[in-house]
Amino acid sequence: MEQLTQIIAKYSPEPEFLLLIIFLFSLGKSVIFISSLLPPASVTLMLGIVAGKTVIPDGYVWAAITLGALLGSILSFHCGALFCHPGSFKRLPVIFQAPLHQAQTALQKKGMPLLFMSRFLAVMRYSVPLVAGIIALPLKQVYCASALSAGIWALALMLVSRVF
């Protein structure tokens, strides 16, 4: 975390680089394979937002966070669609089958609300789109819910950063 703070402090006069950092962290926190390697999203994104407050227009920051989050959700969805096929739950150990079956049932019944709400919960942010890809939810449904939640999540992060 200290290294990230030093990088941001060193390059904060460069708005384009700062926007890239914000975009990449937003993207990384929404992709299943990358998210676990990064520090908490709120901390890293807040550092970028606060560092760029004076040099980057709010609209650009919002767009960077939103696009990163949206792309991350879409990548997680397509990873689920590519690497897992419907019925692949049956090959998993029995202990994992019941929770995944419950997630599948919930997503099939309430896909849009669950996809939307998952953005605001750490592990759910990338696991729900992944399961949505596994069960082949319609692209339009996934993209719409992901875009809406990414935009609101970005706005929420920016509003919280105003306190700092």
Q: What features would you describe in this structure?
A:
The chain is an all-alpha fold and 164 residues long. Helices cover 76% and strands 0% of the residues. α2 runs parallel beside α5. It contains eight helices and no strands. The mean pLDDT is 77.
Quick synopsis:
The protein is an all-alpha fold and 164 residues long. It has helices spanning 2-11, 15-28, 32-35, 41-52, 58-83, 94-118, 124-134, 139-161.
Fill in the keyword field for this structure:
single chain, 164 residues
Mean of pLDDT: 77
Shape assignment: elongated
How many angstroms does the end-to-end distance come to? 18 Å
Helix and strand succession? HHHHHHHH
Which structural class do the helices and strands define?
mainly alpha
Question: Quick one: biggest sheet?
Answer: none
Helical fraction = over 70%
The number of helices is: 8
Question: Got a strand count?
Answer: 0
Strand content is under 5%
- Which stretches are low in confidence, meaning pLDDT under 50 for 5 or more residues running? none
C-alpha Rg (nearest Å): 17 Å
Layout of SSEs?
Layout: H1 2-11, H2 15-28, H3 32-35, H4 41-52, H5 58-83, H6 94-118, H7 124-134, H8 139-161
Helix pairs in contact: 1-4, 2-4, 2-5, 4-8, 5-7, 5-8, 6-7, 6-8
